[in-house]
Design a protein that fits this description.
Elements lengths: L4 E5 L5 E5 L2 H46 L6 H12 L8 H15 L3 H7 L4 H10 L3 H14 L3 H9 L2 H4 L4 E2 L1 H4 L4 H8 L4 E2 L11 H10 L1 H8 L3 E12 L2 E11 L4 E11 L2 H17 L9 E8 L2 H9 L5 E7 L15 H9 L5
Parallel strand pairs: 4-9, 7-8, 8-9
Antiparallel strand pairs: 1-2, 3-9, 5-6, 6-7
Helix pairs in contact: 1-3, 5-6, 5-7, 11-12, 13-14
Length: about 350
């Protein structure tokens, strides 16, 4: 036996080769990636075929209900007959047949591109969008975001229920004047207004440190609210400028914008001097951390409230790209109930148990 090939005995008493040859391991890794790719392609194909069938079924249902004289119990009867014939196949309940009809009617009224996009996401993602959105523009927005970010159903539901459609790209910024195209548009679309921090348990009179600590303790949910692309670098991030130390509230790197993102939190209403301080931090990050491969650093001020006109004047002559948004916590709790809250570990354990599809 060569040194490159060894064998080990499993607990079941079976011999299996454990090849440690480097070429074999490289080839095995490539093979595993190919298998995964085939699995993904197969799942995509199965989903596409299913939705094509649902589309044709929806069209047939609409036509038969308009032309055939089969009575009001048509869908109940169809559901019963199909489930009897295909007991192991899901999707033939009366409720699902009603959703198929509604889905077909909704997207058939749009152009062919919209229909093609809708058939690229799983059926139950379509159901969430169909039942939770209010109009075509909103529905198409969530279809495109799901495709772009590969959202699970639970993440999609979260974004719809937090009204991302109305919040994305609504922050006041100076990006148009400080960033080149198309980075300025991409950066603007990255910001929201307001940010929803309902996953936090805070009193009405919380301060910046409490807000910062709570966001870091729930950083997974904070990143979900920030949106796709944000990578957490640290809190109270130290910058040293000629012997003087400065501390950034939160520092991120955005992998799609290819830039650092400085986030300053203010548990009070926006003040013009906040922009000046954040401008300094952005300049310092550009000078100390930014490499030649990175784009210009972006600053985000997240305040408890703001006067939009004051923000516009404050950012007008600032030369670094900065945006300002509010944050919203609709589930604030009074002080007397703080002690009855579950621990962070209990909250995260509960949330991590939420089923994703």
């Amino acid at each position: 036996m060569s040194d490159q090939r060894k064998f080990e005995v499993t607990k079941a008493g079976m011999n299996r080769p454990l090849i440690k040859d480097e070429d074999y391991l490289v080839w095995l890794k490539e093979l595993k990636n190919k298998v995964r790719l085939v699995q993904v392609k197969a799942a995509v194909k199965v989903n596409f075929e299913l939705l094509q069938f649902y589309w044709e079924l929806g069209a047939d249902i609409v036509e038969k209900q308009a032309t055939a004289k089969w009575g009001d119990g048509f869908l109940s009867n169809l559901s019963h007959d199909l489930m009897a014939e295909f007991p192991d196949m899901r999707g033939f309940s009366k409720r699902n047949l009603e959703l198929i009809r509604k889905w077909y009617c909704f997207w058939s009224a749009q152009d062919e591109i919209a229909k093609q996009l809708a058939t690229q996401i799983p059926w139950w993602h379509n159901v969430v969008i169909l039942t939770k959105t209010k109009n075509t523009n909103e529905a198409l927005f969530y279809v495109q975001k799901t495709i772009l970010n590969n959202w699970s159903r639970s993440v999609l539901t979260h974004h719809i229920e937090s009204d991302l459609f109305k919040r994305e790209g609504r922050a006041i910024t100076n990006f148009k004047a400080t960033l080149p195209e198309p980075q300025s548009d991409l950066a603007r679309e990255t910001l929201k207004d307001p940010y929803h921090f309902d996953f936090l348990a805070l009193t009405e009179k919380h301060n910046e440190k409490e807000l910062e600590d709570a966001l870091v303790n729930h950083v997974t949910h904070f990143l979900l609210e920030l949106g796709a692309g944000f990578s957490y670098m640290g809190k109270q991030y130290k910058l040293e400028v000629s012997g003087d130390e400065f501390f950034i509230d939160l520092l991120f790197y955005h992998v799609k914008l290819h830039c650092y993102v400085v986030v300053e939190l203010k548990a009070v209403k926006f003040k013009p001097e906040f922009a000046g301080k954040l401008n300094f931090y952005v300049s310092a990050v550009d000078g100390i951390l930014k490499s030649e491969q990175d784009n210009t650093t972006i600053g985000i001020l997240i305040c408890k409230s703001k006067n939009d006109m004051v923000v516009e004047y404050a950012l007008k002559d600032v030369h670094k790209p900065i945006g300002a948004s509010e944050y919203m916590i609709t589930k604030t709790l009074p002080d007397e109930f703080r002690s009855s809250l579950p621990s962070i570990e209990e909250i995260e354990a509960e949330l991590s148990g939420v089923e994703e599809s």
